[in-house]
Design brief:
The chain is α+β, with helices and mostly antiparallel strands. It has 3 domains: 60 residues; 165 residues, Jelly Rolls, CATH 2.60.120; 32 residues, no CATH class. It has a 9-stranded antiparallel β-sheet with strand order 4-1-6-7-10-13-14-17-18, with no helix packed on it. Strands 3-2-5-8-9-11-12-15-16 form a 9-stranded mixed β-sheet, with no helix packed on it. β13 and β14 form a beta hairpin. The termini are far apart.
């Protein structure tokens, strides 16, 4: 082994020291390495910018799809009610638009919110079978053809049909669905108070489903608590609903009740009874 080491040492001595590169060559090499390093950095920044632009473009596309989808793909509003009486002022606010004042005989469509002030009441014909009345300070949205969302005030619903039109009133505390009846739904702080004048209602809340019958007042809290009381059919609290009954048009027709002469006198008593019966049902 010692002889091999001696041979290598002699070989290195013969070769001599390695020539150092010139200063000019050193600068050229350093410049080339620096340029390559700068190129790598630029490529890396370009990739990062491309990724950032791609993410931003994806976000803009998602927002655009959501906006235009909601605007152009949402169901078209459907007329579901007609104004039959206004005592004071009644405002309507279509979704995404400013509020405007309504007049008797104008219509209300799905997606619209109607509102009375603290001195006004109104009545609507909701579909073919339901008379709907709004107390003072009421705000209600027509969510669909069979659903109302009450956020303030009170609604009185009168549905006398044997097969009542489906209608659900929702509040923060729960919802009410009628089964052919006359009843009031009122918001009180966060609670919902349901007073049943006639018939029966179904109430759904956080605790489940329960029913209410004529003569009951049911208070429902957002926590699911239910407190029951009583209310008479002629309690003064119904007065506001009776005073806001729809104003029916009176049309002269060739009917027994519009006849003249002796025949009119014979049916006058019958017509009076029919009018009184209609007035009682309306109230």
């Amino acid at each position: 082994m010692k002889g091999d080491d001696t041979s290598i040492e002699e070989l290195l001595l013969q070769v001599g020291a390695r020539d150092e590169p010139s200063a000019e060559m050193t600068l050229e090499v350093q410049a080339a390495v620096h340029a390559e390093w700068q190129s790598m950095l630029r490529a890396r920044r370009t990739r990062r910018q491309f990724i950032a632009v791609g993410i931003a473009a994806s976000a803009v596309l998602a927002v655009g799809v959501a906006f235009f989808g909601a605007r152009y793909m949402a169901p078209s509003p459907v007329q579901v009610a007609q104004i039959t009486r206004i005592d004071g002022h009644l405002l309507v606010r279509p979704q995404g638009q400013t509020a405007r004042e309504l007049a008797v005989a104008q219509s209300v469509s799905t997606g619209e919110t109607i509102q009375t002030d603290d001195r006004s009441r109104a009545a609507l014909q909701f579909g073919d079978q339901v008379s709907l009345r709004l107390d003072q300070g009421t705000i209600v949205k027509v969510a669909s053809a069979d659903e109302l969302v009450l956020t303030a005030g009170a609604l009185y619903i009168d549905s006398q049909a044997q097969n009542p039109q489906a209608l659900t009133v929702r509040t923060d505390a729960g919802s009410v669905r009628h089964v052919g009846t006359q009843y009031e739904v009122r918001t009180h702080a966060d609670d919902m108070v349901v007073s049943v004048r006639e018939g029966r209602v179904m109430i759904a809340n956080a605790a489940g489903t329960s029913s209410g019958v004529a003569g009951e007042e049911i208070r429902v809290t957002p926590r699911g608590e239910i407190v029951r009381g009583t209310v008479a059919a002629h309690d003064p609290r119904w007065q506001w609903a009776a005073s806001t009954a729809p104003q029916f048009d009176i049309t002269i027709t060739r009917s027994p009740c519009s006849s003249s002469g002796s025949r009119a006198r014979r049916v006058a008593k019958s017509c009076t009874h029919r009018a009184q019966h209609r007035a009682r049902r309306t109230a």
